[in-house]
Each structure stands twice: as structure tokens, then as C-alpha cells.
Design brief:
The protein has 234 residues and is of the alpha/beta class. It has seven helices and ten strands. Strands 2-1-3-4-10-9-8-6 form an eight-stranded mixed β-sheet.
């Protein structure tokens, strides 16, 4: 089987729960560190794309030229019906690649926040598990408009567009359901100063939320990644 390509924009970012599920199912995967790697695999050589988060804005192509390359790659993947799953910046890049705007979020979010599934989301095999996860992990200051033809799958009062699907198998998800609890801990350690100075909270407070809410999210995430793996086999 061809591997899933996981695109990273900086460290520390990992597939987390996805890696656990993929390993159990025998789904191969590899990372592409977009900011340093020049030789990107052709889409013919991958089974799907998982696009991880990042600090930058989706339109900062002058500062981060690899983002323009990602726009093209994502557009082509959707055109060819290759499964795509973008988280946070990855969702914003997918939306941007399909012609939608990315802008500052009306409500920047950090920590576990409630979202709700739309009727379409409750029917969608990848998003439906989150109907049982009362809160999901957020860390973003930007948001996206819906691309033309997209189906809204999840929403919230503060940030109306939380997840969407385009076509059969291209998903953009604003919240982070991919990290393990240890992965969120690594983010909190790496960006501890930013958490205190920019967000007005502490890594310890965030990790207390992780302890309370991550188990339910992790269960939903495992089911979601199993559904994504099934898309790879079609």
C-alpha cells in the first residue's frame, strides 16, 4: 500500500493518535517537513494526505514559499479524489487552495471548547464520532470561509466553521483531534511563554483540561482515523 503523507510545518507536530491507528491497521505513513524538504513525492506515490497545523497564516507565502506549493498540491489532490485531512492550518490551507478566504477568527481559541455537529456531520463517518466528545482541543487565531460546494460538518457559536468536507474524501477540521495527551504537553512546553503572555493562561491550566477532556476526544479520534483509513482503500 502507498503511504499516507503527513505534512508538517514545524516541530513539534506529530500524527499522534493517527499514528497509533495507522500502525494497528498496517497503514504506512511518512512525514514531509515542508519547510526543509525540496523533493516532495508525487501524488501517484501516496494514498492520502494529512496536513498538520502551524503558526503561520495560510497566505504567508512570501515568508513561507512552501505554502504556495501546498496550495497547488491540495487543489490537485481534491481534483483527483485523493483523501485529504487537514487540521487547523491544514484546514485553512485546504480552504484557501479551493478559493476560500482565510482571515482572523472572531474568537481565537486555546483549550478544550464545545463544538456541535451539523446534520451532515452526524451522518459523516469521519466526524460522527465527535457527537460523543463534548469538547475538542483548539489552538488557533485564524479561521476559514467555506469553499464553494463544501459541506459544513461542525460549527460553534464563536467560530462558525469548524469542519467541512469537499467531495467524497477531502476534510478540513479547525480543531485538533490528532494529538495525544503527551503531544499537547509537548506543545505546552514549547510555547509556554506564548501561552502565558498572549493567551493569559498557563500550560498547567491547559494540561488540567487535557486530563479532563482528552480521553473522550481520543476515543472519537480513533474512530475518525479508522474511517479515514477506510477512505484510503477505496
Amino acid at each position: 500500500m502507498r503511504p499516507v503523507l503527513a505534512i508538517r510545518h514545524h516541530q513539534p507536530h506529530e500524527l499522534g493518535v493517527a499514528a497509533e491507528v495507522f500502525d494497528e491497521l498496517g497503514v504506512p505513513y511518512r512525514y514531509l517537513d515542508a519547510w526543509v524538504e525540496r523533493d516532495w513525492p508525487a501524488l501517484d506515490d501516496v494514498a492520502g494526505l494529512v496536513v498538520l497545523g502551524g503558526e503561520m497564516n495560510a497566505d504567508e507565502v512570501a515568508r513561507h514559499p512552501f505554502l504556495a506549493r501546498e496550495h497547488d498540491l491540495l487543489w490537485l489532490a481534491v481534483e483527483r479524489d485523493i483523501p485529504v485531512l487537514g487540521f487547523c492550518l491544514g484546514a485553512q490551507l485546504l480552504a484557501r487552495a479551493l478559493g476560500a478566504a482565510v482571515s482572523r477568527s472572531p474568537t481565537p481559541e486555546l483549550g478544550f471548547r464545545p463544538v456541535r455537529l451539523t446534520e451532515a456531520g452526524r451522518r459523516d463517518p469521519l466526524l460522527a464520532p465527535f457527537d460523543l466528545a463534548p469538547r475538542v482541543f483548539q489552538w488557533h487565531v485564524d479561521t476559514f470561509d467555506l469553499p464553494e460546494g463544501a459541506v459544513l460538518l461542525s460549527e460553534s457559536d464563536g467560530v462558525p466553521h469548524q469542519a467541512f468536507r469537499v467531495g467524497r474524501s477531502a476534510y478540513g477540521v479547525q480543531f485538533h483531534f490528532e494529538p495525544t495527551d503527551a503531544g499537547i504537553g509537548a506543545w505546552c512546553e514549547h510555547w509556554a511563554d506564548d501561552i502565558r503572555e498572549r493567551w493569559g493562561t498557563t500550560p498547567e491550566a491547559i494540561m488540567a483540561e487535557v486530563h479532563e477532556h482528552h480521553p473522550a476526544q481520543r476515543k472519537a479520534a480513533r474512530d475518525a482515523f479508522q474511517a479515514f483509513a477506510e477512505l484510503l482503500e477505496r
